[in-house]
Design a protein that fits this description.
It is a single chain. This protein is mainly alpha-helical. The chain has one domain. The chain is built from five helices and two strands. The chain has a two-stranded antiparallel sheet with strand order 1-2. It is elongated. 27% of the residues are buried. The N terminus is likely disordered.
């Protein structure tokens, strides 16, 4: 299991780590060295980021804040996982940087 830590919504890094929500993601069923499994793990990371970083309002500022949160959460999750194939899949995915995922 890994935890996707969200740091995009807190005002400072120290405060963010203290209050950041975390989501446990399973990956025991995946071989993270396999390209297809790495993409599946990345999909799980993105899905978790979407769940935890939902915009609570429909204002432009709230939506931008939620998007930033999702980007930070996905980047943090990939980094914490420290699986080269997942990192490669993340870097190869142009939507990973904008994270306008709607799954």
């Amino acid at each position: 299991m890994i935890a996707v830590l969200l740091i995009g919504l807190a005002p400072s890094m120290a405060v963010a780590e203290a209050r950041a929500p975390a989501v446990a993601l399973r990956h025991a069923d995946l071989d993270l060295r396999d390209e297809a499994d790495a993409r599946e793990m990345l999909r799980r990371i993105h899905a978790a980021a979407l769940r935890v970083c939902a915009a609570s309002e429909t204002s432009h500022a709230a939506i931008l804040q939620a998007q930033a949160c999702r980007r930070e959460a996905a980047a943090s999750g990939v980094s914490r996982l420290n699986a080269p194939a997942v990192t490669a899949a993340y870097k190869a995915d142009p939507s990973a940087r904008t994270l306008a995922w709607r799954r």
